[in-house]
Amino acid sequence: MSEVFIKTLNYSRRLSRFKNRETIKAVRAIFSQKPLHKFEVAQIVNLCPETAEEAKALIPSLENKLEDDDLDEILRDLHSKKTFQ
Known about the structure:
This protein is about 65% helix and about 0% strand. By secondary structure, it is mainly alpha-helical. The mean pLDDT is about 90.
């Protein structure tokens, strides 16, 4: 394996928020019926904001897509998946 490949692999392992396949499937299921673009989902998962207000500040396109209560519920689900994996 090349040195670049190994460095890339190590980098992605370090930044990985969710470690096992079951957790990743569960995270995908959270977003399956939501009116979000793939980019928005990726940003939510990567940034892991704690509140709807923080999420909308970091990802302005969320502003008119979800109510704060719905977004807060999604964020709580993500946090619990991350904690209990």
